[in-house]
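Methods, example record. To illustrate the input and output format used throughout this study, we show the complete record for Response regulator transcription factor. The sequence lines were provided to the predictor; the line carrying structure tokens was produced by it.
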Amino acid sequence: MDQPIRVMVVDDHPLLREGIAAVLEGQPDMLLVGEAVDGREAMARFEVLRPDVTLMDLQMPDMNGIETIRAIRERWPEARIAILTTYRGDVRALHAIKAGAMGYLLKSTLRKELVEAIRLLAAGKRHFPPEIASELAAHLDSDGLTPREIEVLQCVALGKPNKVIASQLQISEDTIKGHLRSIMDKLGANNRTHAVAIGVQRGFVEL
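The corresponding predicted structure is encoded as:
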């Protein structure tokens, strides 16, 4: 490429931004053109800078990465964005892809994959780690939770007993128990605590 790949980093942790900046400095074909700490700042910076590749944190205050990707891609469909995340959850990956992400980078493997991922995205290709791709393939159709099951699991994650969940969702306790049986069966969980742990890992619920 005659011109360097222009990169923007969106993350509310300065150490991560500095780490990425240090990696990019060592690449003659890449240039860090901007940084942002949240989704709204990312929108404003993207409009001015129009980077070739944007690296976007998943969890940020005010406006999360998935919402920001969706908003940017609606205005600039050609935007090439990769999610930065500490989570391997396939549900988060799926939401990011649906929002328009072309890449998914685990922060734990950034040092190894960052440069290659940026070059792939700049060339109009996608980058998804093999473990994320395999999880998506394994879970996409077989055991997705329904919106109601996710509601129930989120309530369980917050420590609410069945009686309180039933009252809050205006359904019977027996129905709650039925949802929990279905959730545990789909997730392969031994009990409700195990179901919450799996739900958090896979991105169905937030703690």
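Annotations derived from this record:
The two ends are 44 Å apart (CA to CA).
The mean pLDDT is 88.
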